[in-house]
């Protein structure tokens, strides 16, 4: 309910979503599509995933997605109220041999955040039917992750 209302309000304030993406790129150039290394098909980073029904649905779908391995390239802290929310950029390789740049929007503990290192291999889940660059850490996979 609030996600749709929030989207409509932003749409009226800033125009079409492309203008909103331009605004986000101006406010946070480190989160622009170019900076993240993804193409124009990437939907972008949601300012507050709790207010976005699309982001909540995507997270639920990723929890049951296919397993793959991602090599951590870089990360950006988005917010730090409570536990740090970071955007992880990973080079993902699927079991089928498909490679792509994956973006994971995750809430990490301080301990997990301090253990992140470029080149680290992490288990991730992705949606093969969508392939929109979104991935999620596969915390249930049992492989070493940032907090293990």
UniProtKB/TrEMBL annotation:
This protein's name: Uncharacterized protein
Which species expresses this protein natively? Kitasatospora cineracea
């Amino acid at each position: 309910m609030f996600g749709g209302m929030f989207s409509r309000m932003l749409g009226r304030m800033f125009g079409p979503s492309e203008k909103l993406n331009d605004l986000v790129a101006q406010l946070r150039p480190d989160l622009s599509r170019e900076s993240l290394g993804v193409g124009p098909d990437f939907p972008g980073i949601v300012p507050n995933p709790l207010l976005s029904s699309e982001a909540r649905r995507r997270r639920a779908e990723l929890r049951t997605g296919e397993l793959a391995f991602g090599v951590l390239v870089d990360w950006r802290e988005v917010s730090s109220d409570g536990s740090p929310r970071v955007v992880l950029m990973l080079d993902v390789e699927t079991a089928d041999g498909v490679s792509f740049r994956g973006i994971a929007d995750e809430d990490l503990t301080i301990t997990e955040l301090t253990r992140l290192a470029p080149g680290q291999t992490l288990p991730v889940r992705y949606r093969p039917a969508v392939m929109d660059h979104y991935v999620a850490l596969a915390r249930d996979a049992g492989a070493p992750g940032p907090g293990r």
